[in-house]
Amino acid sequence: MRKWTAALAAALLLAALCPTARAAGDNAACAILMDAESGRVLYEHNIHQPRLIASITKLMTALVAVEEADDLDAPVVIQGEWLGSEGSSIYLKAGEEITLRGLLYGLLLQSGNDAAMAVACHTAGSEERFVELMNRRAAQLGMKNSAFANPSGLNDDNHYSTAYDMALLARACLENETVADICATRSVTVGTRTFVNHNKLLWRCPGCVGMKTGFTEKAGRTLVSAARRDGQTLICVTLNDGDDWNDHEKLLDYGFQAYPRQVLCREGEVFGSVAVAGSLIPTMEAETREELGYPLAEGEKPVMEIELPHGPSAPIDPLVQLGEARWLLDGRVIARVPLMSRGGAGLDVRTPLGFWQRLWAGLGGGAQ
To answer: Is 273 a residue of the active site?
Structure first.
């Protein structure tokens, strides 16, 4: 009876949460909610439909610039030919000096299109070359339905992405400490300029760690956000959503409640042992070297499989991969982790027998 009551309560809770998620999909042309650690999609609506993306483009601009830069704090001399971009601006002037880091704050907090052009031209020498780097990075991230034509997100028929692809980009930005830190900054003063983050969710949504806003009349309102609660990080992307602040809050709340992070394994956890051939150490334990989590709804129970070799031969160095543990949900692998050797196993090397020892052994005088 208790189990039935608990199951009913969980079902009612999920039923109450799901309309909230669907409501966000009704407002947005495209929407996605993704778990950052695993990449699991928790909610989707037209997630592979290419659309104009406006200034959320600047996440890619920042990621490429940070990955390519030698020194973020080196001064950048603003060139006159970099100026003149339409739209939002941090009002750069020809000849002034500002660090690349300062430009990145202007790019991500103030959404300056002039900052985007300065970042691009300083990093790659020209806008065209930087766009090539953007598209190359997109391909590396698996953004299969995206193309970039400029570093700012101004409307262009050859500049588009999808909710799913932008979630992949957001994961990469969160993994980059510099980009993630700038996105999460509420306000900062750079020289005589003070930038205040346009992302209202930093103040409104518990655990929000920022990301990027965007808008053009043709693209509508676009928004990428991320929030972290109880060790779990979720990413939300909406394209052409006139009520994006509320929708992101609802979707993030839904995700954290309906799909909480469950620990599949902890660092240093032992998952079996293997017999070792040719060593004084008869067996060796196989352990994980990282914690692994996965978002699971009520009632979802992954099945674990362990694959270990049969009788590996010495020598085996410490922390050599022996096999792997994997978890399946509905017959599909959802997570995997390598299983490493705990300690090492040397060869059982014996000293060769001398003449008299071999003779004595041959006469039955002893076994060596």
So the answer is: no
The backbone torsions φ and ψ at residue 150, rounded to the nearest 5 degrees and listed phi first, read: -160, 165
Out of 85, 111, 161, 279, pick the active-site residue. Answer: 111
Q: Round to whole Å and give the CA distance between 65 and 53.
A: 19
The answer to whether residue 16 scores a pLDDT higher than 80 is no
**What Rg, from alpha-carbon coordinates, does the chain have?**
28
CA–CA separation, 185 and 108 (whole Å): 9
Nearby residues of 108 by Cβ (< 8 Å), 6 or more positions away = 58, 59, 62, 179, 182, 183, 197, 212
Assess whether 111 carries a catalytic annotation: yes
Question: Which one from 55, 85, 146, 279 is the annotated catalytic residue?
Answer: 55
Mean pLDDT, residues 262-269? 95
- CATH 2.60.410.10, applies to 264-341: yes
Which residue among the candidates 38, 58, 152, 250 is catalytic per the annotation?
58
- Structure-model confidence comparison of residues 286 and 296, the more confident one: 296
Question: Looking at the domain 16-259, which fold is it?
Answer: Beta-lactamase (3.40.710)
Based on the residue annotation, tell me whether 250 is a catalytic residue of this protein.
no
The residue ranges of DSSP E strands in 244-291, in sequence order, are 261-265, 270-275, 283-287
Question: For residue 361, what pLDDT is reported?
Answer: 58
3-state percent helix, strand, coil for the chain, nearest multiple of 5? 35, 30, 35
Burial of residue 2, with CB atoms counted within 10 A of its CB: 0-12 exposed, 13-18 middle, 19 or more buried:
exposed
Domain boundaries, the chain: 16-259, 264-341
Task: Give the span between the Cα atoms of 143 and 168, in whole angstroms.
Answer: 7
Least Cα distance to 66 among 193, 179, 225, 216 occurs for 179
Residues facing 160 on adjacent strands: 147
Question: Distance between alpha carbon 257 and the CA centroid of its chain, in Å?
Answer: 21
Specify the pLDDT at position 6. 42
Higher per-residue pLDDT: 354 or 292: 292
